[in-house]
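Pirin family protein, pasting as requested.
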Amino acid sequence: MIVERPSGARGRVQAGWLDSRHTFSFGSYYDPAWMGFGALRVINEDRVAPGAGFSPHRHANMEILSYVLEGGLAHQDSSGGGGTIRPGALQWMSAGHGVEHSEYNASDAQPVHFLQIWIQPDRLNAQPAYGQREAAAGDYADGWTLLASPDGEHGSLAIRQQAWLHGARPAPGAALERELDPQRLYWLHVARGEVEAGGRRLQAGDALGYREESGPLRIVGAGGAPADLLLFDLPA
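Structure tokens follow.
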């Protein structure tokens, strides 16, 4: 089964300093049909005004990933984690038994555009942890780059779930393939650009979910610039 989630059907929250699109139910946006996809609980596309951000607040028992598309995102948390991430970098915070954190636009002049991603962990009340994966020169040279995994293989962030996050940036006309295991779930999110996936044309913010699907998933870059894709490989 293939689940379609068009960009325009997502929830939207606007708060002056924040313009946020929610793929799944989050905060004041609630849709019982969209509570997550397997262990993937949240994908919020946030645009935060210069100098603004999310003041310190608390989370527990969630793997939280931030993926910056434009600008800089400054993070601080009560476990000692902190830093500013730039486009192409991935930040990980495991909330564990409880952690307080803040996320602010690192600039007083330019907005920041990023994805906030939550994945439910495979264990409860662990020690909070933090890490960053910086963009590297060899990323995407072979099509897919592993960004997060259970054991941190190939320089990826080691998250606390049997889930793998791959990224890709196909140029217009370039083709990618990924073999799908029917015993796993997959969620393909287009962060930027356009692609064709299995004959479906997708634009920025669009997503497809794959459940009990097998065989190769073929993706071809479209539009006038390279796309930016995230593919979540999740336990069923």
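Note for the archive: The radius of gyration is 17 Å.
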